[in-house]
Structure prediction request, 48 residues.
Amino acid sequence: MNKPKVAGTKPVVLEPASGRHVYCACGESTNQPFCDGSHLLYQKGRSK
Prediction:
């Protein structure tokens, strides 16, 4: 069985700009802690 992807194990201090922000929950994003849409490829079995 493959080990699960972990997005992070420590708190991240951020001062994001105004607007909408989406946090990664799958651990596949290359733009942690923010989502970059990698989960779409992961769900289809084409992980980066």
Notes: The helical segments are 38-43. The two ends are 19 Å apart (CA to CA). The chain has a mean pLDDT of 80.
